[in-house]
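pasting for ref
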Amino acid sequence: MNNTPKVKIGIVGVSRDCFPASLTKTRREALVKAYAAKYDAADIYECPITIIESEIDMVNALEDIKKAGCNALCVFLGNFGPEISETLLAKHFDGPKMFVAAAEEDNAVLCNDRGDAYCGMLNASYNLQLRNVKAYIPEYPVGDAGDCADMIHDFIPVAKAVIALANLKIISFGPRPMNFLACNAPIKQLYNLGVEIEENSELDLYESFLKHEGDARIPEVVKDMEAELGAGNKKPEVLGKLAQYELTLKDWIEAHKGYREYVTVTTKCWPAFQTMFGFVPCYVNSRLTGQGIPVSCEVDIYGTLSEFIGTVVSDDIVTLLDINNSVPKEMYEQDIKGKFNYKHTDTFMGFHCGNTCTKKLAFHEMKYQKIMARALPIEVTNGTLEGDIVPGEITFYRLQSTADGKLRAYIAEGEVLPVATRSFGGIGVFAIPEMGRFYRHVLIEKGYPHHGAVAFGKWGKYLFETFKYIGVPVDEIGYNQPASVRYPTENPWA
């Protein structure tokens, strides 16, 4: 299924009546030309209507971009701009919106054709606040045609996430495992975000799984699994059941997504899953996540929500990991110190039993779940995917509801080091600048669970803007502050 939206941004130029509309028109045309030269022209639509100071023109422009199939809006201040009409346009447009403003091109422009959009952006932002309208405004929202084209392109990941959340359903199975309060969070904020949730019993899932026994599609899925695993297929005897389970989840999604366009899932894997189903679901979770349908384990609802946001923003596969264990000093001294510019406390190991897609592992083996096998027969713990996570830049992040129903988030950029983990599960040696302080004064201090989503690449800029747009208070978005910036709870004499 197509599980992420395609964004089409309607660019509407605005003009105040005491400024020439031709100025906005010329600048808008230059902006569209610059965008097409640098990026995919299909991302944008140039509205031919230049809004003068008229509410009727605003209505006409709104209808035009709707007919053109635009699901995001860019209000372009080609000059000072009509603060009433332009913010009414944003108010009545149903979708994410942004504002950018034209810079003066050169000295000659200052004589007669100065646009004063630098000033107009102030009035536009003030009017947006008066109308309680959310809009994305870039860090520096004034620029020439090329600059504004870059700003619009930066808006695309944010707009995609906003659209996706407004059309998302989370499907969960079962309550969280016993003695596992860590991922417990009120779901009220999901509704505030526009997200639907369908909560099911694990008995419902088990019943559906049994009905898929002997499904004619199982051999084809098994064949696909064999091709993906290659030499890492260490438990071929369990592939049939895993394929049966994958088809169960996919059929459930199709039958239950209802009017929603996008779906993400969260399920259980213990304590009774293994003995009832006869395997662990890790590898299937990894496959679905690799197909753009994130599946978090341990009924981590905000974990799968976080994964989905990262999938949409990065347009890539993500994973969900435990912020799990410290890097031994021995490993740090042998493999990290002097080779990478990180302190020992900047490092940690991110791990989960086996839910990371093969495409994000340096090597992989599908085998049994070592932790569960300490207390259960190995044969019912087959189905986990192990391997070291691919080295490279990452963004560790999470969106969370607090126990009292408030939205909170964190974002930290870093990397997976090219260091052998010498351990089991889907695991990597992570390094984040000032991680030790971030761990103590954000993750611990703010009461975050141990699950964190991982996007591959540097996506902090876009996640930050996304979290702001959907309503996370800026002072509730934690990040790994540099050594020169003290956290409010940090002991200045420590």
